[in-house]
Design brief:
Layout: H1 16-28, H2 35-51, E1 60-61, H3 63-70, H4 78-97, E2 101-102, H5 124-135
Parallel strand pairs: 1-2
Length: 137
């Protein structure tokens, strides 16, 4: 089984214990939760603890809370947003298994990855032309 090299510290809050329990659950089921995964979950935990305005001490993933965290940020790529939504969905499923109330972000609402990259292939003549121009500078 994969052993974590480092124990990541989490800020105290009502979601902290549950997120740590979720990471331990993933470890126990064979999922590799390396340091980067733990940092990612720590960021989600921080957001949950900050954005949840409900004064109840029991963790509760409401639709509004999940949608705020799932929202795209600034210049963030769609892949990063999709990763965060996926982790949030799996955590919501874990919460439901544990008997907590949680909204699972619908899979149909997950943004699709857009690929704007277009490859440009040079032939020999074009490369020769570019190198000749570069040599003349």
């Amino acid at each position: 089984m994969y052993k974590n090299n480092k124990d990541i510290s989490f800020e105290p809050g009502k979601y902290t214990i549950l997120i740590k329990e979720y990471i331990k659950h993933l470890d126990a089921t064979g999922y590799k939760t390396g340091t980067s995964y733990q940092y990612y979950m720590r960021d989600i935990c921080r957001q949950l603890n900050q954005l949840d305005s409900n004064t109840d001490s029991v963790p509760n993933l409401t639709k509004e809370l999940v949608e705020m965290i799932a929202m795209r940020r600034g210049n963030e790529s769609s892949g990063t947003q999709m990763n965060r939504i996926g982790r949030l969905r799996r955590f919501a499923c874990f919460m439901l298994q544990k008997g907590y109330s949680a909204y699972i972000y619908p899979s149909i609402s997950i943004p699709k990855r857009n690929f704007e990259f277009k490859a440009f292939v040079f032939d020999r003549d074009q490369i020769s032309s570019i190198l000749k121009e570069a040599d003349s500078i």
